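Researcher: Quick sanity check before group meeting.
Model: Go ahead. Protein one:
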Amino acid sequence: MVMIDLPILKVLQKSDVARRMVRWEVELSEFDVQYEPRGPIKDQVYADFMVELFSANAHQEEANFRWVLSVDGSSNQQGSRAGVILEGPNGLLIEQALRFAFKANNNQSEYEALNAGMLLGKDMGAQSLLAKSDSLLVIGQVIEEYQAKDPQIVAYLGYVQILKGSFVVFELMHVPR
């Protein structure tokens, strides 16, 4: 029994397939092969993958590794979006694109991107995180150089401060657009 999501059975049953496929069809036809859809991947498979990815030896090496988070948020007439890129050890690269189902201004989108990235870093077990953003206002408010007055921005800022406590080392850096 072959567990596969690809339509291989349909391809093998077509009469107009290439010679190589016909040869494979002849070779496989002597066996009683059944094709079944794979079905959903269970949470346990994902959990096992994460355990394998972050084994005890790798976890010790990661303790000294500085994860790099790049975030950007934007808002326009068509909606609000954010992008998150998290770089981890051994070339691990996680990218997220977020589209918000609510109206947000540019600063709120920047905070949403930062919060999403910090949560991702926390979930991945990062101890040291360097976050990069192009928003001078957000960076200035997080490092307490600027004051936040808007109640929504104050709430975003408070959540960032809570998330900062999840990391042994957290640094926020401005990158030009």
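Researcher: Fine. The other one?
Model: Protein two, sequence then structure:
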Amino acid sequence: MPQLNPSPWFFTMLISWATYSLLIQPKLLSFISPNPPTNKTPKTLTTTPWAWPWT
């Protein structure tokens, strides 16, 4: 079965991972996020009990 022969596909996989790791990934990581996360103080919500009409 030719699908199990890794010889023609292994080199293609290595070249694609090398291209991703060496060329594409540094360019993508150099972008600055347009909306950086900030630390927000948590707000405490005040809740009022529900007035059930049958109690």
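Researcher: One line on it for the slide.
Model: The mean pLDDT is 81.
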